Amino acid sequence: MPELLTTINELKQRVSALEVKNSVGPIAFTAGLRNNLVHVGDHQHIVFDIVRTNIGGAYNPVDGHFIAPVRGAYVFFVVLTNFVDHAASVQLLRNGQFLGHVLADDTGNAFSTSSLAVTAQLEVGDHVWVQNEYTFSTTEQIDGDNWSSFSGHLIQQN
């Protein structure tokens, strides 16, 4: 009989842990860039300040960081638009570590838009942000007016 009670208690603990694990709701955000950024500095953080969606509240429009509220697989998207006759290159980072980069190059008399999609395993509290890769052009400029954006969502908690 004591073994049965022990097994029942263990099963109750497992069920409780699964209920907590699955209690997290959806996590998703999309934010756009309000103003054009001119002469962006090396490794300058890009703050996407027009929040269109922030389900779960994990994106901070003050510093431009997404902070993972749960451990899991996430996907992130960066859309980068340069200004006419300018170029821009940004990178996506997790806790300062490279996840990917995207270049919108000067195509001459036209805007250029490029995008990046990255899937990453995050731990609770991990920070993900976009920053200028480096200044490779004296005419570097990122187009605002919602043409450039940063978004992401939780695929699966694990």
From TrEMBL:
Segments forming domain C1q: 22-158
Superkingdom of this protein's organism: Eukaryota
Main location: secreted
Recorded GO CC terms: extracellular region
Presence of the UniProt keyword Protein transport in the record: no
Subcellular location: Secreted
Protein name: C1q domain-containing protein
Nucleotide-binding as UniProt keyword: no
Keywords: Secreted, Signal
Listed Pfam families: C1q
Organism: Dreissena polymorpha
